[in-house]
Write a structure and sequence with these properties.
Elements: H1 4-15, H2 27-38, E1 44-48, E2 54-60, E3 68-72, E4 93-94, E5 97-99, H3 103-122, E6 130-135, H4 147-152, E7 160-164, E8 171-175, E9 177-186, E10 190-191, H5 201-213, E11 229-237, E12 243-244, E13 247-256, H6 262-274, E14 280-288, E15 291-292, H7 298-311, E16 316-319, H8 325-329, E17 335-338, E18 352-354, H9 355-375
Parallel strand pairs: 3-6, 3-7, 7-17, 8-16
Antiparallel strand pairs: 1-2, 2-6, 4-5, 5-18, 8-15, 8-17, 9-13, 9-14, 10-12, 11-13
Helix pairs in contact: 1-3, 3-9, 5-6, 7-9
Length: 376
């Protein structure tokens, strides 16, 4: 029988465990999860990928085990930062909200998943598929100590994946691709009083940025995603105010739509920079493909029904930012994200999650697992 107080306390307990990334240390929270589930009779495997970068894996076996569903939140958080109304690891309750780092992203979702898993074990529920529950490390810094190696090393091999990492019951079925690049511009040093004797790399970089921003990307309009974007994330250059800068570096964050060719995007950016810079270095820091799951897939259909049962509606959404959905594409595993955090709270000071979201989230996730059972 569902006990909301147990879910609230569990959320608070998880928030009070420091798992900020960086620096990155999920050992304490992983052992907490293992101990919690073992008390319900669920065996949990700990997988350490890098020092103290622990991932948890728990399997609720099905009747025939021919198919498996991965349910995966992450256990790390971004750093707490400053300007908090409540202590960021206190999990204080105020006006039916739990405040603290990770309440929305992603420990509220983690708590819901754990509570559903505990209740299914207590009720001796058994499905026509295995449920693999994995709280992964390092999501906030690229998943290099978490989901990526878990999939690549075949430590987990699900047929389907449900990512618990979203807000307000939104069903995430599409996301943009990501391209991070660093561009280094070379100039010629000279005295600041005689700029004509040098070549100012900062001036060139400014013009290069302007031209990149004016690129007309070719794309097909997407119903759930905004057009492609370019953001200048960092810029630095020059050695001293009275010198002509002979170097400048800047980093670009480019988000592109499903259907767009990432190599064409790279060529367009290079061409824009090369049209003004005679000498430059172009370094790709990160690249992720866009991801999209058909709105009629059994994962999505099951989530729609579960959402209607819990909150009387459903909302299909696209993610402008990168999620772990794309990592499943490489392994041909259908994946969808959903979550119960509070909108616009992730990564902010005074992050919170509504207690009502947690309660309804429990109902939605549990209903989903039973509904999905009919389709598998």
């Amino acid at each position: 029988m569902f006990n909301p107080r147990r879910l609230i306390k569990l959320t608070q307990d998880l928030v009070r465990i420091d798992s900020q990334n960086p620096p990155g240390d999920e050992k304490k929270i992983a052992f907490f999860i293992k101990d919690l589930l073992s008390k319900s009779g669920l065996s949990t495997r700990l997988v350490e990928i890098g020092k103290n970068r622990f991932n948890t894996i728990t399997v609720l076996k099905g009747k025939n085990s021919k198919k498996s569903l991965l349910v995966t939140p992450h256990s790390d958080t971004v750093p707490v930062g400053r300007n908090w109304k409540f202590l960021p690891l206190s999990a204080a309750i105020y006006k039916n909200k739990i405040y603290g780092r990770g309440t929305t992203d992603c420990k509220g979702n983690l708590a819901v998943g754990l509570e559903v898993l505990r209740s299914l074990k207590e009720e001796k529920a058994c499905f026509n598929y295995d449920i693999i529950f994995s709280a992964t490390a390092d999501e906030e810094a690229g998943s290099y100590h978490g989901l990526i190696p878990l999939l690549e090393r075949k430590i987990i091999r699900p047929d389907y994946a449900l990512i618990l990492d979203a807000d307000d019951f939104n069903i995430i079925v599409a996301q943009k691709g990501l391209l991070h690049v660093k561009i280094g511009i070379a100039g010629k040093k000279a005295h600041g009083a005689y700029p004509d004797r040098g070549v100012n790399a900062i001036d060139i970089a400014a013009e290069a940025i302007r031209r990149v921003k004016k690129i007309k990307f070719s794309y097909k309009k997407h119903g759930l995603l905004k057009p492609p974007t370019v953001n200048v994330g960092t810029i630095c250059g020059g050695d001293k105010v009275n010198m002509v800068a002979d170097w400048c570096e800047f980093e670009l964050d480019i988000r592109f739509l499903p259907g767009m060719d990432k190599y064409k995007v790279i060529r367009l950016v290079k061409n824009a920079v090369g049209s003004v810079a005679k000498k430059f270095k172009f370094q790709i820091l990160a690249i992720q493909d866009p991801s999209e799951t058909d709105a009629d897939h059994i994962l999505v259909r099951s989530l729609k029904e579960a959402s209607i049962s819990a909150v009387k509606k459903y909302m299909l959404k696209g993610s402008e930012g990168a999620t772990v959905m794309t990592f499943f594409d490489k392994h041909n595993i259908p994946a969808v994200a959903v979550g119960f955090g509070s909108s616009k709270c992730a990564h902010t000071s005074n992050e919170y999650v509504k207690i009502s979201n947690l309660v309804k989230g429990y109902s939605m996730l549990k209903n989903f697992l039973f509904i999905f059972d009919r389709y598998v």
